[in-house]
Amino acid sequence: MARTRPHRLELLQGTLDLLILRTLQWGPQHGHGISVAIRTSSHDVLHIDHGSLYPALHRLERQGWVEAEWKTTENKQRAKYYRLTAAGRRQVQAERDRWARLTEAIGRVLDPA
Hints:
The chain is an alpha+beta fold and 113 residues long. The protein has a single domain (17-110), classed as Arc Repressor Mutant, subunit A. The protein has helices at 5-24, 31-41, 50-62, 86-110; strands spanning 29-30, 66-72, 78-84. Helix 1 crosses helix 2 (31-41), helix 1 (5-24) crosses helix 3 (50-62) and helix 1 (5-24) packs across helix 4. It is globular. The chain starts with a helix and ends with a helix. Residues 1-11 have low confidence and may be disordered.
């Protein structure tokens, strides 16, 4: 079972990256807001815990796909807001294309002609 775990994490990580990048296309957002947006837009199916979200945001920031700055929220709390960079906008399309190829291939396996 331990051997399959890295593959699951890799797929989850790539999927989470796509979800975060796509969410940030709607505009800058703090981490909790990203989590809520993903949960809401998935009709409460996808719940991203902070233990997965923040490492993914930091990784995307290191890759240059998002930038962050500290701002004050509507509730007067300090929070780090993330926004897409130009490279991040290009990456969204690359990730969407990869996702389309992946789901098409999985569909062919699940329902062969």
